[in-house]
Design goal:
This protein has 257 residues and is α/β, with parallel strands linked by helices. It is built from nine helices and eight strands.
C-alpha cells in the first residue's frame, strides 16, 4: 500500500509540474501552412546549387510557422505526378514508380494533406494543371474553421491574390507570405507587387529554413523535394526591386547571422 501511495503521489507531482510549466509558456496561436510544391522545389534546387535539398516536408511547414511564433496544426502540400505518355518509355515508367512511392509515403503523415494535380506536356515543356484550384479550394474550406486565424503560404503565384484578399478582408485572416528573392532584376525569383500587397506579413526563405527541417537519416517518410518532369512555370510578372524588397534583404542578412 505504501508503494502504491508513493507512486500515486509521484504521478500527481509530475502532473502538477507539467501543468505549471505549460501555463507559464507563451501562448502560440494556431496556423495552417500551405506549400506550393513546384515553387518549393525551385527554391530548394537554387539554394542547393543545382541539387535539391532533402527536407522533412511537415517539419518545413512547422519551421515556417515557428518563425512567426505560430503553432502549425496542419500542413498542405501541392504537387503533380510526372507526365506519362500513352506509350511510356523506361525512363517515364521509372519516374512514375519513384513518384508513386513518394506519394504513398507522404499520404501517411499525420496532419499533412497531400494534394495532387496533373502534369501536362506542351511540346518539350511540362506544366502543372489543377494545383492552383486545389489550393484555392483548401483556402476557402479553411474559412469554415473559426479557430484558424493565421495562414502561412509559400508561393509566388499572383493567381492567389483574389482569394488571399478575401481571406484577409472578409474573414480577418492573418495572411503571411513565405517567399524567396535573389534580388536580381528580372531574375527567376522576382516578386509581384500585387502578391506582396495582399499579404499582412512577409518573410524571406533562406537555407536556414531547410537546414532546420532536414529529414532524419533513417526516416524514409520524406524524400527529396525533386519531382520528375517538374518544371513549374514562373507566371509571376517580373518587377524591379522595391523598397519593400530592400527591407527584406536586410532581414535576410539578419537571419544569416
Amino acid at each position: 500500500m505504501t508503494f502504491l501511495f508513493l507512486l500515486f503521489l509521484l504521478k500527481r507531482i509530475i502532473y502538477k509540474v507539467f501543468t505549471i510549466h505549460y501555463s507559464l509558456m507563451p501562448h502560440m496561436e494556431e496556423a495552417y501552412v500551405y506549400l506550393d510544391g513546384g515553387y518549393h522545389s525551385k527554391i530548394s534546387k537554387h539554394l542547393g546549387e543545382g541539387v535539391h535539398l532533402k527536407v522533412d516536408m511537415k517539419q518545413f511547414g512547422i519551421t515556417l510557422a515557428k518563425q512567426n511564433k505560430l503553432w502549425c496544426s496542419k500542413v498542405f502540400y501541392y504537387t503533380a505526378p510526372p507526365y506519362v505518355g500513352s506509350n511510356p518509355n523506361n525512363e517515364e515508367k521509372k519516374k512514375r514508380a519513384d513518384y508513386d512511392r513518394f506519394a504513398h509515403i507522404m499520404k501517411k503523415i499525420p496532419d499533412f494533406c497531400f494534394r495532387e494535380g496533373r502534369c501536362q506536356k506542351a511540346e518539350d515543356d511540362y506544366n502543372q494543371k489543377g494545383v492552383d484550384t486545389l489550393i484555392t479550394m483548401d483556402l476557402m474550406e479553411m474559412c469554415k474553421n473559426k479557430k484558424i486565424k493565421n495562414i502561412v503560404i509559400l508561393t509566388s503565384d499572383t493567381d492567389f491574390v483574389p482569394i488571399l484578399n478575401k481571406l484577409k478582408d472578409d474573414f480577418g485572416i492573418n495572411v503571411i507570405l513565405a517567399y524567396y528573392c535573389d534580388f536580381v532584376r528580372n531574375g527567376n525569383f522576382s516578386m509581384s507587387n500585387h502578391l506582396w500587397a495582399c499579404c499582412n506579413n512577409k518573410f524571406l526563405i533562406s537555407k536556414k529554413h531547410f537546414d532546420l527541417s532536414k529529414r532524419k537519416k533513417k526516416d524514409e517518410s520524406i524524400v527529396s523535394t525533386e519531382k520528375p518532369n517538374e518544371q513549374p512555370q514562373d507566371s509571376t510578372p517580373k518587377v524591379a526591386k522595391t523598397p519593400e524588397n530592400t527591407t527584406e534583404k536586410t532581414e535576410q542578412s539578419e537571419q544569416s547571422k
